[in-house]
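pasting for the record
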Amino acid sequence: MSWFSWLFIVGSRSSPSLLLVWLVGRELGLRDGLLCVQMLTCSHWGRLSNQDVFQDGDVIIGGLFSLHYQPPATEHDFTQLPNYKPCTGLEYFELQYIYAMVFALEEINHNAMLLPGVKLGYRIFDSCGHPPWALQSALSLVGGDDTKCNFTNTPISAGNIEEITDRRGGQTVPVIIGGASSISQIVSRMLKPLSISYLATCPCLSDRLEYANFFRTIPSDIYQARTVAQLAIRFNWTWVGAVVANNNYGHTAIKVFQEEIQAAGVCLAFVETLQRENIISDARRAALTIQASTARVILIFTWYTDVRELFLQLGKLNVTDRQFLASEAWSTSGDLLQNPVTSKVAKGVLGVAIRSSAIPGFESYLRSLHPIYRPDDEFLRKFWEAEFGCTPGVMSVQRASLSHCNGTESLKKVQNVFTDTSQLRLTYNVYLAVYAAAHALHSLLCPIKDSPSENNSFTCSSPKHIKPSELLQHLEKVNFTTPQGEMFYFQGADIPAKYELVNWQSTADGTLKLVLIGHVDGFALHLNESAIQWITGSNQVPISMCSELCPPGTRKAIRKGEPLCCFDCVPCAAGEISNKTGSIHCERCPLEFWSNTKRTACIPRQLDFLAFNETLGITLTTAAVTGATVTAAVFVVLLHYRHTPVVRANNSELSFLLLASLKLCFLCSLVFIGRPSDWSCRFQHAAFGISFVLCVSCLKVKTIVVLAAFRSARPGAEALIRWFGPSQQRGSVCLLTCIQIVICTIWLSLSPPVPRQNLGFQGSKVTLECAMVSVVGFCLILGYIGLLACISLILAFFARKLPDNFNEAKLITFSMLIFCAVWVAFVPAYLSSPGKYTVAVEIFAILASSYGLLLCIFAPKCFIILLRPERNTRKHMMASQQK
């Protein structure tokens, strides 16, 4: 055997200690039995004195309660034993929980149907809400606490740990009624006792693989965190602050809360943590954060003693306009409700509460408590001293600052948190935990006899050797009806989740009262909103958001680097709308519709076309009518002076035909103005094409005539002018025009233009236009006009230098240049113009080219005829030729 085969353990000889020793041996590679323990049984080092109450019985039920909330500051320098000073700050709530456990045990002991012949005792420790205290208390409970010294030398194996524990003297407990989550986790991890908690809400404790010996009579925090998240979503609170306990209770709750609100557009403005050891400084910091934040709704997940300090700090800062959301840990705290600071800071609190239930006879039991009947009850003595300011006379030790009680003190008429049984919540959970343990013990110790002769009776076996592993199996199957008629059973480690929703409302005398406004069953929320009184003192729901909700017609635009709840409101683009408040994006209107000016609704797009009564239509109509009028005036002038040399010298017949075609060109532009219809769509392009072909044909024939006239002076050219006489000239014009007529007829017969709404242009108006079903026909019309214009330009260019004082070829050249320039520029302008401006571009091209022809060809003639009549002579006309 090696030098480390013997371990000497002095102090607590609990089975976990033995288990630890055995595990060490296993790690060292020793076989069972090689590792022995020299055990000396003595009192614990640094034992916590006056921290427990005890009542003997056949079976002892353990209890861990945080009777005091302020543990002393303890320095561990590892040079001397820890000095365990008593905790301070007596909590009346926790004291009520302790006596709820005692009451339930006494009630069970008097119940002939539950554990008959078995007396249940208890041993209850004050854990002070501090893990070292709780761990040492739990060690005493699961391993016993004996002061007798004895010496043994026993080999340890995996199978005899409990046997050694049973032999060592001290009575262990099969089950512990536990406390908060942090303590339950530590005790369950290290000691693994069978425990039922009335207060531990951490979701992690539902893990049956890690905490197989743990049960609780309070729902998991997942349910209340989700409930609070549902409240925030329901009331559109998108900017919420949070103050949480710096432990698993707070961190788990805020994590679940964030998971629930993530998809609902709710953000956390801040998260402050409170540490019980530094509660004053932490509460001060959290209060300053709340004061500086724009969040008007504050979620608080921490113990009520921490909330009390936080409200005190908020009261000093005069922060009285925040709406608080309360967790079950403080939502029903009578201490807070009766605090004058709370009535100023936290009226209107909306909270989740553990469901309440009555315990018949419990109030009478509490009021009947007296130290004279419980002389060994240190907890009751401390309460008596705090409540009445005196030391009970039955106690052997008297405090220097307190006098002896006179014996007339009684709880019969005392009204405080301890005696208040109107809202039994966690107290009822303690009561249920005791009954669950009792029913599990009953199932283990008192099995029902199946023999018909025994009438399904039951007898209880000896409770001397109760193994937690055996009791665990029965506790998992517990299913009973409580004395209040409620069905009770476990779902794994948990019970079915049920909560109440409460509201702190102001009364006439300025105090606060607790009002039930709804309940929660699992994840189902049932709430009476009309019954809520908010922080404002009215039924108006408070607003808490980083940015105001975007009004209809705008959308959210997230600010870079800030939470999603902080945004700017951007107006919807043209053609898009948002018809509800807080829209994330704008919706595009259908093609037939467009957004109104406020971008809140899609309205039918107005039909738009080039009308006669609008400015552009009036301008173009005026230009067209003016052109036609001027053309008619020129026609009249030339007709009146048709026998003068100027008119006769340039083929008067073609000139009159040209003026008639120009007048048609001016007038055909009017067909393009107004609401398009079937006949106007068919007629406008046909009239335009035929009129311009007639016009250009006349110019072409006139140019040919000029060339033929000057060429006829050459030898052998007389036949040319005879061959191209007046009949041929008229025939040429008719032929060239008929070709265009044929093209138009075929085009309009096969696929004529039709009126159609042009939805492609994005705007509040939809253009009603003549749509080209076949672009080929339109291109042929324009192409033919362009071909004739080019030929006329070329012929006129060749005839521009013919000798004559008045050579019309020059004028035709200028007119054709203008004509071609206008129509070349027309093509890109036509294709790029939107809506009705396409029609306006086409009308402008018609008028510009028509004015160009009219002015270039006929303006010089009218100038001579009207203003220079002396030049309107044959002599002047032939002067250049004679030279």
